[in-house]
Amino acid sequence: MSLIDSHGRRIKKLRLSLTDKCNLRCHYCMPLDQEFMDEKRYLAPLEIKEILQELVELGVEEVRLTGGEPLMRKSFDLILKEISQIGLKKIALTTNGILLDQYFDLLKRHNVFSLNISLDSLHKDNFKNITRGLHFDRVMKNILKAHELGFQVKVNVVMMKGINDHEFLDFVHFAEKTGIEVRFLEIMRIGHACKDQNDQFISAKELIDRLKEVTTLSPVSLPLDSTSFNFLTEAKGQIGFIASESQAFCGHCSRWRLSADGILRACLLKDDGRSLKGLDQQTRKNLFHELLGMKPLMRPLEVSHDMNRIGG
Ligand code: SAM
Ligand code: SF4
Description:
Elements: E1 13-17, H1 45-57, E2 62-66, H2 76-83, E3 90-95, H3 104-109, E4 114-118, H4 124-131, H5 136-148, E5 152-159, H6 168-178, E6 181-186, H7 194-200, H8 204-212, E7 217-220, E8 229-233, E9 238-242, E10 255-258, E11 263-265, E12 274-275, H9 281-292, H10 307-310
Parallel strand pairs: 1-2, 1-10, 2-3, 3-4, 4-5, 5-6, 6-9
Antiparallel strand pairs: 7-8, 8-9, 10-11, 11-12
The structure holds S-adenosylmethionine and iron/sulfur cluster (SF4).
Residues 22, 24-26, 29-30, 67-69, 96, 118, 131, 308 line the site of iron/sulfur cluster (SF4).
């Protein structure tokens, strides 16, 4: 058995959420008074390792650690140590960057070089408006430090009309000045974001049109299952767009998601999944097979669960 569904999509990548907790409260992700799951519900490090080992045998090559904020998971070090032993081709991390300075050495030791770091504003005040946190300086310092240390850094910006879209060209200049890739995400209709998404939505096409007024864009070729499409600006800024709302990429999706409490999902936008917690190897294998039939071909319009529970 390998993980190929009836539409020929091969599952090669896993987004592994380590916790739903976070030290920010980005307004599109969760409310200020968000309640988090009891840590007793988390998959234990060794169970994570076993599950990943089985998935690697079935063709999974890459794991991206996410959350919530993955660096808030108390056993992050142990989990990373365990999963770095199972022959994955790549382990990557998506983080809000606040705690990153404490982890540079550990990440390097375990060959975690690919860091997606979220930053929705280049200004302290607007960062605070969006994230309801005070950590702008530390995040910016950590982004620049990670780049300097040789990590492959991508800055993820959720672009929102009337909130940070006036900073769009500043982010492009940031990419040109620093050599750090910046990717612009369309705000998705997920959980807490659904209520304001219509008003805040700005499409990748609209942003690209704005950019074409000031620079020419050269397309960059990327693998078919890449979530972003990228360009180089005239001044060699690397920029990308993740147009999950306006240009869905379900036809080439190669990802499954495992939540901190052990629910394996075939799609970010589908609530149904299969709980793997406490199961034996054979039962898990049967569920992997079931999950292959659960990946939609047409993109669901929205989903009610919050992003931080599933792992973005
Ligand atoms: N806490 C980490 C971080 O912020 O990078 C990892 C988890 S976070 C859920 C992963 C990514 O999802 C972030 O880049 C965040 O901006 C993005 N995200 C969260 N909610 C979103 C939404 N409704 N639409 C688009 N992107 C969203
Ligand atoms: Fe936390 Fe990431 Fe959600 Fe922001 S997007 S609240 S940093 S989990």
